[in-house]
Specification:
The structure holds 2 protein chains of 2 kinds.
Chain A lengths: L2 H14 L1 H39 L3 E6 L10 H10 L4 E6 L1 E2 L4 E3 L2 E3 L3 E5 L3 H5 L3 E4 L4 H5 L4 E4 L1 H7 L8 E4 L2 E9 L14 E5 H7 L7 E6 L5 H16 L5 E5 H44 L1 H9 L4 H42 L9 H28 L2 H6 L2
Parallel strand pairs in A: 6-11, 8-10
Antiparallel strand pairs in A: 1-12, 1-13, 2-12, 3-6, 4-5, 4-9, 7-10, 8-11, 9-10
Helix pairs in contact in A: 1-11, 2-9, 2-11, 2-12, 9-11, 9-12, 11-12
Chain B lengths: L4 E12 L2 E13 L4 E5 L6 H8 L7 E6 L2 E2 L5 H11 E4 L11 H10 L5 H14 L15 H14 L4 E5 L7 H16 L3 E6 L2 H4 L4 E6 L2 E7 L9 H7 L1
Parallel strand pairs in B: 3-8, 3-9, 6-7, 7-8
Antiparallel strand pairs in B: 1-2, 1-4, 4-5, 9-10
Classes of the chains: A alpha+beta, B alpha/beta.
């Protein structure tokens, strides 16, 4: 008896009890589609996260100085020197001074607007564009000029689009608007990326209480040089402070790696949980195969009397179980892909987030392989039972 | 050439709790190629056990069963399946057809296990079914046929692999006397064509169709001779009385 005959018999028997087979398959269908959906969600999240990090700049490195009291602190000069000495790894740098003072325009105060002191390279690092007026310049830094850039939200909402040349106040200090940063977000909103005021870091340092600059943003030449860049910064800061607790370096590339591996662990655990339903489905197949063997005891006896060897009976039942679960697996793929589509729509509608749930070929192939494996594994026991039946007893069975 | 079927001191014991049932107790018999033999006995006489052993569905507890000169007792289950397929055509009382398959598919089964191609299987199944007058029902399921027709399907299935031995276990047991006679006539025909036919029955009138009777009682052979001897159908007790 060849493989083709075995498969034909198996499919014939499955077709003869469609409803029962379908119900048996349900476990596998649900299991496979759940695995595909979860893998799809994982892929979608991964892509979404990478996009989000890209927007922040995957090659950017944040340096925060806590200082150590009386000893020498790293200053802007040290940081610029570090940048100049390592052009292979470091591309640009800006100090960032977060202002606690409130923004005042005319008589109104606005507390949600982010006011930050930065260098002339800041816009490049963030990939922002100038829409109107000019960028901050080196001379603004050097002379601590009382000028600033505003975001589109500030320009549109508070100045009706005519902010350039106007003045605003940060704390008690009057600043002249020299340029407007092009809109970044799709919609302008209070407290958003476009609700900002940028001024020279030198001016910001002078306005702030301490006069200290404690935060810098570097960019590596590319994400692959990120680790090298982190090492360079770390080495210099350690040289200056002599202790690791005086500073903190956060690289976006490392952060992305950490998040990615966390996400992977999470998705793997979820997929394993979904995989448990595959095992449950397999047990369902085993159960129904055991029933089938009992029901067909007489048929097995007849086949044995007519010359079917044990291996033939064994492979017939194993094939039936495997075909059942593979067909279940194929339905599961279809259903899983469908659920991914639905999930994509739901995520967009409910969470207002642009994320697509993408099933990948690898997880689909794995799902099919696993379901076939489960069919064979859980089909083996009933098939062995069938193969071991004594033909005399089986023929007598009513 | 030796006999086709040979029992040498064949014993088959079943242990049931504390009792040992001697279903076959030192049976010796030889059946040659081309014979038509009826194995007769009441229920419990051991004829079914003998049939299972002849049919290679079971092996003796002790003694030897030689089929075509080969010792069946030493074969594993896979070899037994092979020899059943090659040497034996079974005809059962309950026909034992596969209810989900049509006649062609039913008759194909023994050839499938011999690895014959699908087209060839089909050709031969149709040929044998036509010979047995079932050409109008080829695509029917067994349940759509009468008992006599179903038994003819099982005869077709027994013949299709061209085994030398036809083993018929109460082949008329489930049939009315008219169709029963028809089946017996078919067995006669097969015998005339040179098949070795072994008929197992409890019914003397049916056993009479065979040339030779082997009568079993309590697991032993009590008569082995021609069917036209009146002694063939006397029980052992009657035998003693006659003497």
């Amino acid at each position: 008896m060849n493989l083709f005959d075995t498969a034909r018999l198996a499919i014939g028997n499955i077709w003869a009890s469609k409803m029962r087979t379908f119900l048996t398959m349900l476990g596998i269908i649900i299991g496979v589609s759940a695995v595909i959906l979860i893998e799809g969600l994982g892929n979608g999240l991964q892509v979404y996260m990478e996009d989000a990090f890209d927007a922040l700049g995957t090659s950017s490195i944040e340096v925060i100085l806590m200082g150590r009291g009386s000893t020498r602190n790293a200053d802007v000069e040290d940081m610029y020197q570090l940048l100049d000495e390592n052009p292979q790894a470091l591309e640009s740098m800006t100090p960032t001074v977060t202002m606690s003072g409130v923004l005042k325009i005319g008589n109104e105060t606005y507390s949600k607007t982010a006011v930050t002191g930065v260098s002339e390279d800041y816009l490049d690092i963030k990939s922002y564009e100038i829409e109107k007026g000019r960028n901050l310049q080196y001379m603004d830094m050097k002379d601590r000029k009382a000028v600033c850039l505003v975001g589109s939200y500030v320009d549109q909402t508070y100045f009706k689009g005519r902010s350039v040349g106007e003045t605003l106040k940060v704390g008690k200090n009057k600043l002249t608007v020299v340029g407007v940063v092009a809109q970044e977000e799709e919609e302008l909103r209070e407290g958003g990326t476009d609700d900002i005021v940028l001024l020279p870091y030198t001016s910001a340092a002078r306005y702030s209480m301490t006069g200290q600059i404690s935060r810098y943003t570097f960019t590596a030449t590319d994400p692959d040089h990120s680790d090298e860049a982190v090492d360079l910064i770390e080495a210099r800061l350690y040289e200056i402070y002599g202790t690791e607790s005086a500073y903190m370096i956060v690289s976006m590339a490392q952060l992305l790696d950490t998040f990615s591996s966390m996400l992977n662990v999470m998705i793997t655990i979820l997929a394993i949980i979904a995989g448990i339903s595959l095992v449950v489905g397999g047990i369902g197949i085993m159960n129904i195969m055991l029933v089938s063997v009992t029901e067909r005891t007489r048929e097995i006896g007849i086949r044995k009397a007519l010359g079917a060897k044990e291996t033939v009976i064994l492979s017939q039942f194993v094939t039936e179980a495997a075909v059942t679960s593979v067909i279940g697996g194929i339905f599961g793929i279809g259903f899983g892909i469908l659920m991914c589509r639905v999930a994509t729509k739901l995520v967009v509608q409910i969470l207002q987030v642009k994320m697509s749930v993408i099933p990948d070929a690898q997880s689909i192939a794995m799902a099919v392989g696993v379901s076939a494996g489960i069919g064979i594994l859980f089909g083996y026991l009933p098939a062995k039972k069938a193969a071991n039946l004594n033909p005399i007893d089986a023929l007598r069975y009513e | 050439m030796g006999p086709l079927i040979e029992f040498r001191d064949v014993c088959k014991y079943y242990v049931m709790g504390d009792n040992t049932v001697k279903a076959n107790d030192h049976i010796n018999m030889r059946i040659d190629q081309g014979e038509f033999v009826a194995i007769v006995g009441q229920s419990g006489s051991g004829k079914s056990t003998s049939m299972n052993i002849i049919g290679c569905l079971d092996v003796p507890t002790s003694g030897q069963y030689l089929l075509g000169g080969r010792d069946v007792g030493s074969m594993n289950r896979s070899q037994l399946a092979e020899i059943r397929n090659e040497m034996l055509g079974f005809i059962f009382q309950q026909y034992n057809l596969l209810p989900k398959y049509n006649l062609i598919e039913n008759v194909e089964v023994p050839m499938m296990y011999r690895g014959i191609s699908r087209a060839e299987r089909k050709r031969r199944a149709v040929e044998v079914l036509t010979e047995l007058g079932l050409s109008d029902h080829l695509k029917h399921k067994p349940s759509e046929l009468s008992g006599g027709q179903q038994q003819r399907v099982s005869i077709a299935r027994a013949l299709v692999g061209e085994p030398p031995i036809i083993l018929a276990d109460e082949p008329t047991g489930a049939l009315d006397s008219k169709t029963g006679k028809e089946v017996l006539r078919l067995l006669q025909e097969l015998h005339q064509k040179g098949k070795t036919v072994v008929l197992i029955t409890h019914d003397n009138s049916i056993a009479r169709q065979a040339k030779r009777i082997i009568r079993l009682e309590d697991g032993c052979v009590v008569y082995d001779g021609p069917s036209d001897d009146p002694a063939a159908f006397r029980t052992h007790a009657e035998e003693v009385q006659a003497e």
